[in-house]
Specification:
This protein is an alpha+beta fold and 505 residues long. It is 23% helix and 37% strand. The strands form five sheets. Strands 1, 2, 3, 4, 5, 6 and 7 form a seven-stranded mixed sheet that branches. Strands 8-15-16-18-22 form a five-stranded mixed beta barrel.
Length: 505
């Protein structure tokens, strides 16, 4: 069991997935497959949005079905279905075998899986107190409508919007080796934003509250201080609208976790997915400059840089007990002392490359976002670790003579090899002689990945560490979307190029 105190939802366990798994796997075995797995999922989604105190819309969706995946003669076969009967499960298994038979003629490199212990009928539940899908919709929309009504009444706010995405994901996995896992995780993503104008300027200011693998308590029990932040949003917006435009040039940056998580996601998280590094995503999502031949050689960043992959951290959006290939999840080093030392991988990649990376074993990074999609290698919670005795954010700022403090994420751009990039943010503050000044406008920072991370002189201590993240990381064809968290402390970077976005336009 995971760290949550809840049992698996009984409306899920009442579904006939065990009977379907037995039928599908038994039929796949008849064809002499070297591997077969069965995955049954129910994913419930609820989303609503409000604007200026009024409900704009609400929707509930459910994705329910199962999939069978096989390896026959070194080739993958995959099929899925939605009819919950044993005859349908048998038919889906037969279709998966037929796909493998056809694919065999086109498969140049036989597929094999890294070994993994058997996990016999284990369960895992994420950590939360109150399932948000159990809270009446009227109660939830009233909270957000009240927040936007309050914000709209503030000086300088022309409009205020809010929304909440909530997900309950249940999965059952079984394979011919005897592994059986049943899992449940909850996640939610709140959004509150205010909009205003001053002269020719139109802009917005959004809460920096991250999406989390928590329950409804995140919004009501002080886990994040929404009251204080919402009270500040109109003030921050007014300051932003009247702030001076930045003078482009070279600046030292102190970047807050609410912004730095996204730079980690784009320039480290995606760059160290092994399928990208091997070129598998070249026709769609891109490859990586951090190719496998640079393992244990590439000076990715400065010596203070320690980055881990982790699918076990509490409240992480990518955290789970077992991945979609029946692998127990883990934590491992990706960058240590600034050197590239690891990648994210699944069982097929681990069979070929795992001896150098993880003792010949997958590190649990296979995931499919629905029962109709095949598992692919997906991102772990990739995080920059704090310094045990590192300073607080004010201590980092005190080390800067001329710089900018960056808070909150906004737009971003990065090339297909995850190397050249630029990022903006929610707000930027001038730093002069170690003191924080007022806001600046039109700021973007630009660098190459290795240039940027090698300019990192110091990381903050554990008190500055926060988990950020996103619900909408896209990858693969057909496209899949996954949620992932990235933890980091505040960090100090020297001599980073700053663009004035208005001038660039």
């Amino acid at each position: 069991m995971g760290s949550g105190q809840h049992e698996i939802d009984p409306t899920f366990t009442a579904l006939p997935y065990r009977k379907l798994a037995d039928a599908a796997l038994s039929r796949a075995r008849d064809f002499g497959v070297s591997h077969a797995d069965f995955r049954f999922e129910r994913v419930r989604y609820q989303h609503f949005s409000v604007r200026d105190g009024q409900l704009q819309g609400a929707e509930d969706n459910e994705d329910l079905g199962f999939a069978v995946r096989v390896i026959l003669n070194g080739a993958w076969g995959f099929a899925s279905g939605v009819i919950l009967s044993t005859s349908s499960a048998i038919q889906v298994a037969e279709t998966a075998v037929n796909v493998a038979q056809v694919a065999g003629a086109m498969t140049r490199r036989p597929i094999d899986l890294a070994p993994e212990p058997v996990y016999d009928d284990v369960t895992w539940v994420s950590s939360y107190d109150v399932n948000p899908l159990d809270v009446p919709l009227g109660e939830k929309t009233a909270l957000f409508a009240g927040w936007t009504r309050q914000l709209l009444a503030a000086d300088g706010v022309d409009h205020a919007s809010g929304s909440l995405q909530q997900v309950q994901e249940n999965k059952f996995y079984a394979d011919l080796n005897g592994t059986r896992t049943t899992q449940q995780r909850i996640r939610l993503e709140p959004h509150v934003e205010v909009f205003g104008t001053a002269g020719e300027h139109f802009d917005s200011m959004r809460t920096i509250a991250p999406p989390v693998a928590r329950g409804w308590e995140y919004l009501t029990d002080g886990v994040f201080d929404f009251d204080s932040e919402l009270a500040e949003l109109p003030v921050l917006l007014r300051e932003k609208l009247t702030a001076p435009s930045v003078e482009p040039g070279s600046y030292d940056l102190v970047i807050h976790p609410s912004n730095l998580w996204l730079t980690i996601h784009e320039s480290i998280g995606h760059a160290t997915e092994l399928d990208r590094a091997l070129g598998y995503e070249a026709n769609y999502a891109g490859t990586s400059f951090a190719t496998f031949d640079q393992l244990n050689k590439l000076q990715y960043g400065s010596p203070v840089m320690h980055v881990t992959g982790d699918r076990t951290v509490e409240n992480g959006l990518a955290s789970i007990g077992y991945d979609d290939e029946g692998v127990a999840t883990q934590q491992w080093d990706i960058i240590r002392d600034g050197i590239l030392v690891g990648y994210q991988l699944d069982r097929p990649m681990a069979h070929t490359y795992g001896a150098e990376l993880n003792g010949g074993r997958s590190n649990g990074c296979a995931y499919a976002d629905s029962p109709s999609h095949i598992p692919i290698q997906r991102m772990a919670n990739v995080s920059l670790q704090p310094a045990a005795d590192g300073p607080d954010t004010a201590g980092l700022i005190s080390q800067v003579e001329r710089g900018i403090h960056v808070i909150g994420d906004r737009s971003w751009s990065i090339d297909m090899q995850r190397y050249n990039f630029q990022f903006t943010g929610q707000r930027f503050y001038e730093i002069k002689d170690g003191e924080l000044g007022g806001q600046l406008r039109d700021v973007a920072y630009q660098a190459t990945t290795t240039e940027f991370w090698n300019s990192m002189e110091a990381v903050g201590g554990p008190s500055t560490y926060e988990l950020g993240g996103a619900f909408n990381c896209g990858k693969a064809q057909p496209g899949q979307v996954a949620a992932v968290s990235h933890g980091c402390p505040s960090a100090l970077f020297r001599g980073v190029r700053i663009l004035n976005t208005s001038e660039e336009i």
